[in-house]
Design goal:
There is one protein chain. With 124 residues, the chain is α+β, with helices and mostly antiparallel strands. 27% of the residues lie in helices and 20% in strands. The protein is built from three helices and four strands, in the order ααββββα. A hairpin with an 8-residue loop joins strand 3 and strand 4 (98-105). This is Lipoprotein SmpA/OmlA domain-containing protein.
């Protein structure tokens, strides 16, 4: 091989040699996130907490809205005096979803006490 060609080949291979000089970090596999938040992440105390949809509708009547997503169910009850949103999550895989969070508001949008709203809804 001619010296010029040897020099040219050596110079052209320098940038490629720099590419392989780094450290290879092995990829780590992390488990997928859980399907939904555990019920205990939202659980508070209150008169509706822990009720399933059947008992909730027996207590408050037919919901105005029933929204289902993959890991959550929202039941909304209203009577003209207040609107109550109950969020149900399954406490474990294969378990019946239960109320883990409740929001209540007046028709104007102002927040109201969820327990008082639930009482109001029971006496429709």
């Amino acid at each position: 091989m001619k010296p010029t060609r040897l020099l040219l080949t050596g110079l052209l291979s320098l940038p490629l040699a720099a590419c392989g000089a780094g450290t290879v970090v092995p990829a780590t596999r992390q488990p997928p996130p859980p399907a939904g938040p555990p019920a205990s992440a939202f659980m508070k105390t209150g008169p509706l907490m822990g009720l399933d949809a059947k008992h909730l509708t027996q207590m408050l009547g037919t919901p105005r809205l029933d929204i289902r997503e993959s890991t959550m169910r929202k039941l909304q009850f209203a009577n003209g005096r207040c609107v109550l949103d109950a969020y149900l999550y399954a406490p474990g895989q294969g378990k019946e979803p239960v109320v883990t969070h409740v929001d209540a508001r007046a028709p104007s949008g102002a927040g109201v006490d969820p327990a008082g709203c639930a009482t109001s809804l029971q006496g429709r």
